[in-house]
Amino acid sequence: MNRPATLVEPGTVKLERLLPGPIERVWAYITESDKRAKWLAAGEFDLRLGGRIELHFDNDKLSPDGSRREGTSSKANPMTGVITRLEPPRLLAHTWMWPSGNTECTYELAERGNQVLLTIVHRNLGKDFVLPVMGGWDTHTGILEDVLKGVPPRPFWSTHDRLTQEYAKERAAVI
Questions:
Q1: Which residue has the higher pLDDT, 76 or 127?
Q2: How far is the C-alpha of 31 from the C-alpha of 37, rounded, in Å?
Q3: Is the pLDDT score of 64 beyond 70?
Q4: Which residues touch 157 (CB under 8 Å, ≥6 apart)?
Q5: What value, to the nearest 5°, has the Cα angle with vertex 113 and ends 112 and 115?
Q6: Phi and psi of 17, rounded to 5°?
Q7: Helix 130-149 crosses helix 156-174 at what angle (to 10 degrees)?
Q8: Alpha-carbon separation of residue 85 from 12, 97, 101, 105, 167 (angstroms)
Q9: What is the pLDDT of residue 172?
Q10: Which residues contact 147 (CB under 8 A, 6 or more apart)?
Q11: Which of 5, 124, 149, 160 could form a disulfide bond with 103, CB atoms 3.0-4.6 angstroms apart?
Q12: Where are the domains of the chain?
């Protein structure tokens, strides 16, 4: 089965998803807090090299079905980092402090006709985070695709859980 997320090396997840364009619109959904909150997390990005980023996750709000998961309150401390690369509207990279240490996330946009190929590479993940991150990026970018298409977004938690289990089965089959 072909999935958008792949493990390209230990601790590094890569995801590719073709989205409705134009590129400036997709860029806005990555960099602007109010738009990013619809598919990933709210939080300000100081769009300059060395600028601070904040991500305030509330995955419960992403689910149109009203599903909730304990411990996912938007009142949690924000995840933070700094911008390490910035080439609007094609490339954004930032560090991302996790409980397991500093990770790095890169978003790259490439025009494909009237669509945009979004490539996300998330590096320096601890081994326990790889599968949930694969399922997470697949779910979050699927919701982004839904939002950009103007259709009701898929439910977050049930989609995330199903995809994470499918990635685990595929990885077990390869090992």
A1: 127
A2: 10
A3: yes
A4: 59, 60, 63, 67, 68, 69
A5: 65
A6: -145, 130
A7: 130
A8: 18, 16, 20, 10, 29
A9: 72
A10: 29, 38, 39, 153
A11: 124
A12: 5-174
In the predicted structure, residue 110 carries a pLDDT above the cut 50: yes
Task: Write out the H or E segment, with its range, that includes residue 138.
Answer: helix 130-149
- pLDDT of res. 171: 78
Q: Which two tokens stand for residue 46?
A: 């100081």
Q: Which two tokens stand for residue 106?
A: 């890169």
Cα separation, 170 vs 80, whole angstroms: 32
1: amino acid identity, one letter: M
Closest residue by Cα to residue 58 from 43, 47, 80: 43
Q: Which CATH code fits 5-174? A: 3.30.530.20
Query: Of 74-78, 135-139, 151-155, which range is least confident?
Result: 74-78
Q: 174 pLDDT exceeds 70?
A: no
